[in-house]
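Exercise: predict the fold of this chain.
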Amino acid sequence: MDITSSDLRLIEYNKTLGLVTEVFYFTIPNSPFAALARGISIQNISNKPIKLQLLDGLPQIVPYGVSNLFLKKLGRTIEAWMHVKNLEHAIAFYKLDVDPTDRPEVIKIEQGNFYLSFHKIGNKIQLIRPFVDPVTIFGPISDFSYPYNFIRVKELPNSSQEVISSRTPAAFSYCSLALKKDETHTLYSLIGQIRSMDLLNSLAPNIANPEYISQKYNENKRLICELQNEVATKSSCQRFDLYVQQTYLDNIIRGGYPLRFRCGSTFYLYSRKHGDLERDYNKFHIQPAYYSQGNGNYRDINQNRRSDIWFNPDIKEENLVYFLNLIQLDGFNPLVVKGVNFRIVETDKCKEVLSGLVCQEDIPKMMEILKNPFTPGDLILTIETQGLRLNTDYDNLLENILSFCQKSQEAEHGEGFWTDHWTYNLDLLESYFGLYPEQKNELLFEKNIFTFFDNSERVKPRSEKYMLVDGKVRQYRSLISDSAKKELIRKRLKEPHLVRTEYGKGEIYYSCLFDKLLCLLANKLASLDPFGIGIEMEADKPNWYDALNGLPGLLGSSLNETLELKRLIILLKEVVSDSLKKEFSITEEVAEFLDALNAKILDYRKNKDTKRDYVFWDESHTLKEDFYVRIRFGVSGRQIRKDANWLNDILMNALEKIEEGIAKAKVPGQELYYSYFINEVKEYTLVEGNLIRPLGFNQTRLPLFLEGQMHALRVAGDVEKARSIYKSTRKSYLFDKKLKMYKVTGPLKDMPQEIGRCRVFTPGWLENESIWLHMEYKYLLEVLKNGLYKEFYEGFRNILIPFQNPNRYGRSILENCSFLVSSAFPDKRLHGNGFVARLSGATAELLQIWLIMNVGPQPFRLNKNNELNLCLNPILAGWLFNQRKKTYSFNFLSKVEVVYHNPKLKDTFGKNRVSVTVIKFTDKDGNLVTIQGNTIPTPYAEQIRLRQIIRIDAELN
């Protein structure tokens, strides 16, 4: 078996039969249909001619139009709709004639799945009419385990006698062969989906050709190689190099790939939810079109796009604007991100430009198409379907049309609100400021391009969601669909899900990034639990650790987001300190919310009563509930000017308040932190029915989670504190001594089952005490970012997948998984085994690890004259350098080859480290440049960022 990133090949050498059989698969790229190509080659390696009968195909193929519901629950009933058509053309077209949904409107189905098979006889290409009735092949064997008729019956019946409707069809190609010595015969098949039978038949003469298959094989391989080459790495360890490339490809499949048009518009290709076909619960959509895009969850796509700017600097603030504009006034966000569409805003100019790109008589049709919002893929398919004639290619057409368009993001609520989604925007900010440090002030204060997502789903006040259930207080059904808000949104003609001024009746409200971050600060500061420690799970959902699905019902809270709130406050303090601005414009409602919160923090300080945490909780939540009422339909549109002293006062008070809570979460005598808490109501009064008002709480800590230690590292502040966290974590039960890896949780056996599904899983499996790869990689990344380089490399070869024992891991060591079974699992044979291939957030962590290893934590920076510099401070172990060439190379910013020359093969960190002493490159004008030291000054740093320099050689001494 030979697996690459672009194809699968299976080869069998059978000396007894004298045959070599080779089967290959790959996907067809850049075509007006989607298809899997399959080929089977049989070679005669005996010393005599061989006659054989070949049967190749599928025992079942699902016709187009069969939904998952019908397939799984009404499998027999749906067969009545099934038909196989087009057999007179020797190509099977599988479809339902109409949508089977029981409703008065009957909808015809034009699309279909198809099976096309052919081979070459002499110089002639011959289509093979497939057998489509499984009974023809299997006879009475209905489980398809044995092709009874093919083996037992002397001659198969004529395919024209087959049943072609009301039965789940098959797809088999049959031929008789006589192979001479050393002769090879190949049968090709395409299994796919296409828009119509007519289109299929019109394409058949071109695609039923070995040359077409060969061309598409090479095209597919080239496409994937071009993507992977953006992170091309040449170290001493080939499996690490290959793993980085595969991880990058997996990251693209989940987060998408940014296509930047010359007009400045960015469009993401490929993305889809998780992207994991192996996960049985996944339900994702991919647009069946050119320039395809898919749906995904906010957190997933946000994480996977974290480092995109480092692979394509041209996208600049694209992702920051995209994801922050999905944040609502209440600090939450819709779950489902559906991609983008475009709308023409300069119709006359667009029509004028189209006159040179589209045949004159087709321009009215084109303008009619462009009246409505469109996606690039839909536009191209419509052009093809209507037969519009172009004078240019699709890329250039889109380039011109999109320059007159406004882009709109599509999203929908989905379910609940997670407490952690907002935090991934801080990662995007770090990425952007890391590459464009000189743009910080402009993006934060001067670009009023940020909006707020308008959602008809809102969080209920406490008085409507705290309830008695079997004598215990629980928080259930925390969200409500606001019918009045939904109607307001429905009536809007454009951009319906953007917050308006005049409390919903005015224009779209625009603000700056700094203002939006302050809105997040206010909401999260008012969401601390009754002990001032964790941020509450107030909206039916937990955080990153989804398996605590029951914790919101137990009025649960999480320290992880409190630590991220600290990170946000530190960022805002630095921004205010570095800015030359004396006054800042803030949304009126947000400014007043912050003012009131600050007053409550001051009251908290004065209050020495033991219930002061409860009092702050009650009063701050009341402020937040009042804020929710005020911004229910929108904002006034007014902004208040506040000075730096006002901001600094609020930020300092907020930081002190949450620092107190963080200290309470610390394990006594150790640098470890509890992550999750149950907040049990111990005293209450009845409000109405089973609804209650809490008067006091008891807090229960859950065991340690790796997540808490990872977030603590993020805000450690200095190397020694980070080292203390690292050492404490390694000594704790979170460290699996047998595997030398980190478990996602400690033992949960003493916790109630109500905390969530993790509690009922066997320890060591799924989210209960397993090695959860994503969180382990997150932790390793923070170890690296904190300057613990020796400790980082201690874990590097134990933790990273390419260094796993393949026999123990149980799958390709170039492929990530969801989790590895830890030594807590009862079956010792499975310890270290990886389960469920997953294109998860682990890919985002690995790519950032790779980037920091290669160039250091802050490559682009400003000198004292505010000039851009590029500093090369690689963090590479000596063993990673090629032992013969004494080099390590990688592609920086996807196009700039950087080669480190390390003649002593020493580490680039630690006491006896080597560092960059000489840098050589050819600038954009062809001049050879030599720089002493590790810092590339202006203008060369900018040329590198613009990817105008193609190679850098750096000597390490």
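Check your answer against the key: The two ends are 44 Å apart (CA to CA).
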